[in-house]
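Title: Request for sanity check on Methyltransferase domain-containing protein prediction

Description:
We are preparing a figure and want to confirm that the structure record we downloaded matches what your pipeline produces today. Could someone re-run it with the sequence below and paste the raw structure tokens into this thread? We only need the token string, no images.
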Amino acid sequence: MTDFDLLIQLHIRQLRQGPGGQDETLLAARLAGVNAEQRLTIADIGCGTGAAALTLAEHFNCDLTAIDFLPAFIEELKVRAEQRGVANKITAQTGDMANLPFEEQQFDVLWSEGAIYNIGFKQGIKAWRKFLKPGGKIVLSELTWLTQNRPYELTNHWQKEYPEVATAGEKIAQLERNGYKLLGYFPLPEYCWVDNYFQPLVERFDSFKAQFPEKSSEVDALIEEQQQEISMYQKYKAYWSYGVYVAEKIAS
Ligand code: SAM
């Protein structure tokens, strides 16, 4: 078992694999004009085990395609979709967000929480636009500076880890330059990180250790990495979060 396999095992039983929340998913849906009356085609890109996909399928009349490059997450999503009674609305499949197996203008809504960074926000919004119908909506959560001025250590950290990190103003300008009109923006509040993501992860550490006793040094290193991410958030949460961007495809 590789370190990457261990990382998957740490996260696969979690409700979500990144910060966010059901209320925030539903708020973004409202900003995108999604309502229960229309039948919509939706793609959730980098869906993980389905935090957003399952919420959307439960609340809206939709045909939802959930895609992630990890087969284990897709299999887990399928099990959860059955358990939550929405399997008939969700097609879950493996695939690469850099090379999506979709048709042009296939979707009313593209959704991606905490995942577009894997190919970069700029590349993602350009590459995915063609899959939206005219007037289609895109909903993205993305690492975002909350302030113009920040401690050097923090700026330095994220410039190395994800050089595309920027303020909401810059992200919105990128959307506008690439054929989208902003419909709404909000930063994820603290509980989306602490209560919904970090706390359940910390609660998983003991059972994770017990699950892989023969891999204790790798497990400890992985837990240490997660602890550092949590400490980084706690220390600097005034300066960064994920921003949720809701935009409409316009003619360009
Ligand atoms: N959207 C989920 C959520 O909010 O719980 C998962 C977020 S997790 C931080 C990022 C997800 O992106 C992971 O499930 C990962 O497997 C997926 N991912 C990473 N690179 C990918 C790629 N190139 N194509 C498709 N999915 C990818």
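Thanks, this matches our download. The longest helix spans residues 190-211.
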